[in-house]
């Protein structure tokens, strides 16, 4: 896709994504992607755009981060002919897991993935809706690294550039469509 086309897609998506002030707490402007998911043409275009961007990267697994990452990762995986890996909050996955803790504003949280989700050398695309401080995506990269997988890309629908999350993903191929 040309630069001009991706800019057109990004500005169209910006008009559809809804800002919800003070959710989940005061001072946060929540980027609500549900209107985009509910728009069949815009959603399909978005999925195709991300799949095209990573089409020739040899990706065999697409990893979605709980919960909104699942909604984007699943159709991208199908479009790429790849498998899907869910990364979930602690205690949700049924089989043996590997885990990574990451810092929140106050305290820490833990993400988990099944220990057999990624084979050594396998190329993995990590997908989520929003890149904010980058702590979540960096923790997920470390899970993939830990199993011997290769992070072939980190794909975010939205990047909040002022939070500098990209700095935590130095050396990773990070792609976001919409920037604020
Ligand atoms: P971070 O670890 O700070 O990059 O936060 C990323 C995670 O928090 C992602 O899973 C996002 O879904 C969520 N998130 C952070 N900030 C926002 C926001 N302003 N709107 C929607 N989701 C957000």
Structure description:
By secondary structure, the protein is α/β, with parallel strands linked by helices. It has a single domain, classed as Rossmann fold. Helix content is 32%, strand content 33%. The chain has helices at 3-16, 34-37, 40-53, 68-80, 135-146, and strands at 18-21, 29-32, 61-65, 83-89, 97-103, 108-114, 123-131, 150-159, 174-179. A 7-stranded mixed β-sheet has the order 5-6-4-3-7-8-9, with helices on both faces. Strands 1-2 form a two-stranded antiparallel sheet. β1 and β2 (29-32) form a beta hairpin. It is globular. The two termini are 21 Å apart. Adenosine monophosphate (AMP) binds at residues 28-31, 65, 68, 128-137, 165.
| Estimated share of beta-strand residues | 25-35%
Taking the sheet with the most strands, its summary is: 7 strands, mixed
Overall geometry: globular
CATH class: Alpha Beta
CATH architecture type: 3-Layer(aba) Sandwich
Structural class: alpha/beta
Strand line-up in the sheet with most strands: 5-6-4-3-7-8-9
Question: Which residues form runs of ≥5 with pLDDT under 50?
Answer: none
Mean pLDDT: 96
What ions, cofactors and ligands are bound?
adenosine monophosphate
Number of distinct helices: 5
How are the SSEs ordered, and which strands pair?
Blueprint lengths: L2 H14 L1 E4 L7 E4 L1 H4 L2 H14 L7 E5 L2 H13 L2 E7 L7 E7 L4 E7 L8 E9 L3 H12 L3 E10 L14 E6 L1
Parallel strand pairs: 3-4, 3-7, 7-8, 8-9
Antiparallel strand pairs: 1-2, 4-6, 5-6
Helix pairs in contact: 1-3, 3-4
Bound molecules: adenosine monophosphate.
